[in-house]
Amino acid sequence: FREIAEFQKIVGSLIELVDQLAKAAESEKMKAIGARNLLKSIAKQREAQEQQLQALIAEKKMQLERYRIEYETLCKIEADQNEFIDQFIFQK
Question: What's 86's DSSP letter?
Fold first, then answer.
């Protein structure tokens, strides 16, 4: 009986140890899942931010093109007005 009791004691200790290791493994697994989810969240945020910045760049390029066309138009108007002024002055 003593040997059986000793064996049961050893098996009990072994089961307790395995339970502790299982709990520790589960805890680490949850930490890893949390870290992975955080990284996914950060990646999605960066992707959304990149899309916003790309949209802003496209908007600014369109604005720049409008300003370029407006500038060219104003330069032509200025040249026409200067030509008119020159013609008016030479007529006097």
Answer: H
